[in-house]
Design a protein that fits this description.
Layout: H1 2-27, H2 36-77, H3 81-98, H4 100-108, H5 115-138, H6 143-163, H7 170-179, H8 185-200, H9 205-208, H10 212-228, H11 237-244, H12 252-286, H13 290-332, H14 334-348, H15 353-365, H16 372-396, H17 401-414, H18 420-433, H19 436-454, H20 460-464, H21 467-502
């Protein structure tokens, strides 16, 4: 176990180190000077982030992934579809409520809609679409056609929001879809899909194991859009002041103890809901051996401590520094802010815990056909470009739909030209890339820049929010482009091989009589 933990810590060190180095280097320049206390606070929190990601990834391997796999396999073998979809709905709701980055987003928009109502609404959206995703696997339905249908429905509801004068809620609605697929949701749901797909079988089992995250990202967007029709208000100055309060980070290290207690309580409650429901399934359906349960129990402990350390590091160090970096760099130069967004977006995805879970399963399911390094490069490029484009949108103050509509048209169009497994992986990657660091570091950075450029709280809903949606959309294009490249490369190799065969010298052919 100690050896496995060291491997995970090494991986998380490689992931977090680039972003930590970039921020600390910038803190010594006129771009965004930080005080010595802020630099120390950020450095300490970076170390905590490394430890938290390492513990969480080990916990995901020992607990969250096996739990999802056992639930998917056990319920599918029972051949009771009604029980399967009922359990999936409940698990979808519970896991979403447990998702930490959703709570972060909800707390930042509590002025415009009740945060508890928002979280429950998003949970119900995930639960309903998890049912749809599971039925897709059971009945072997096409993911591309389902995505096409539900995105058309989504944009139809989007037009209703605009017609009702609620277009300021569009960015928040799309962001809600991105933050639901975080460190707790991804390991469990991906393993659930893998368990169901392998049990159901069929020649498309590998492809069917992906796509659950993609569909579960649509449900919250539609649910929050419907909720937005009944909501009103704007981000108040009090909320803005709360967001900006970490500019005075001088006492942040002293707040770590208090933050640990609050975060531990929230994570414990969230994980307890999942564990209790899993135990009910264990005694009624699964009946796993004690050795498996002991491993899952150890994994839950690792997951708990990893998440607590991760979230405390984000709250105490990364959120305040993100806000201040956005404010300071925007004041210095807007073009530099766009370039910084490109660079920081390229490396921040490396520190998302769920990304490593996805990459590992992709390489495993595709038999090494899609390498982890290829996935990381494609995701990094996507997130860097999306952050740069979000900053440009914020500066020039235009609608998020100018990006999303052509982006999703390109994504859905590519789905007809690449292998279906690449489409499933791409749409899952979009949800996975927009994890806790996106909502807790990138979003505060954009909010800080928005406050500096647009001068108040009124533009936050329309201009700052939407960055999570962009981070969730751009991987759909880059991963499918990776698939398109793979097809073209295979065709070129086949063409060269055929040309060599046809041009071969007959004298070199050996005839056997």
């Amino acid at each position: 176990m100690a050896k496995a933990l060291l491997v995970k810590l090494k991986e998380s060190l490689i992931s977090v180190l680039p972003i930590a180095i970039i921020v600390l280097i910038i803190s010594f320049t006129p771009l965004a000077p930080l005080t010595a206390t802020e630099q120390i606070t950020f450095a300490v929190c970076a170390v905590m982030l490394i430890l938290g990601i390492g513990l969480f990834n080990l916990g995901a391997d020992l607990a969250m992934t096996p739990m999802g796999g056992h639930v998917g396999t056990g319920l599918t073998k029972s051949k009771k579809v009604l029980v399967l979809v009922s359990v999936c709905f409940i698990m979808g709701v519970l896991i979403t409520i447990a998702e930490p980055d959703l709570s972060v987003l909800a707390s930042q928009v509590s002025d415009v809609m009740n945060d508890t109502v928002l979280i429950v609404t998003v949970g119900v959206g995930v639960g309903i679409f998890l049912i749809i995703a599971v039925l897709k696997i059971v009945f072997h339905k096409s993911l591309s056609m389902l995505l096409m249908f539900f995105y058309l429905m989504l944009f139809a509801i989007c037009s209703m929001l605009i017609e009702c004068g609620k277009n300021n809620f569009l960015a928040l609605s799309f962001d809600s879809g991105g933050v639901t697929t975080g460190p707790i949701t991804v390991p469990f749901i991906m393993a659930l899909g893998f368990g169901i797909a392998t049990t159901v079988g069929g020649r498309d089992a590998n492809e069917n194991s992906f796509g659950l995250i993609a569909l579960c990202s649509i449900g919250p967007i539609i649910a929050v859009m419907i909720l937005s029709l009944c909501s009103k208000g704007e981000i108040s100055q009090d909320t803005l002041n709360a967001l900006a309060s970490y500019e005075t980070v001088e006492g942040s290290l002293a707040l770590i103890g208090h933050s640990i207690l609050n975060t531990a309580k929230d994570v414990l409650l969230a994980l307890a809901l999942i564990v209790v429901f899993f135990l009910i399934l264990q005694f009624t359906v699964l009946k796993l051996p004690r050795q498996k349960l002991a491993q899952i129990g150890i994994g839950i402990a690792y997951t708990f401590f990893g998440l607590v350390i991760f979230l405390v590091a984000v709250e105490v160090g990364f959120m305040p520094i993100g806000f201040k970096l956005g404010t300071e760099i925007a004041n210095f130069s807007q073009p530099v802010l766009a370039v910084f967004g490109l660079v920081i977006g390229f490396v921040v995805v490396l520190a998302e815990p769920a990304v490593h879970v996805l990459n590992k399963q992709v390489e495993q399911v595709t038999g090494g056909g899609v390498k982890k390094i290829e996935m990381l490069i494609a995701l990094s490029l996507a997130v860097g470009v999306s952050l740069c484009l979000s900053i440009i949108r914020m500066i020039f103050h235009f609608s998020l739909l100018y990006y999303l509509i052509p982006g999703y048209l390109i994504s859905l169009g590519l789905s007809f030209f690449v292998p279906r497994v690449y489409t499933a992986i791409a749409f899952d990657s979009g949800g996975v890339a927009s994890g806790p660091l996106t909502s807790s570091f990138i979003l505060p950075l954009i909010v800080g820049a928005c406050v500096s450029i647009n001068g108040g709280a009124d533009a936050i809903l329309t201009d700052a929010f939407g960055v999570v949606a962009m981070v969730a959309m751009t991987p759909l294009i880059t991963i499918q482009a990776l698939g398109f490249k793979a097809i073209m490369s295979a065709k070129v190799r086949d063409k060269i091989a055929m040309k060599r065969i046809l041009s071969a010298d007959d004298e070199q052919i050996i005839y056997f009589e």
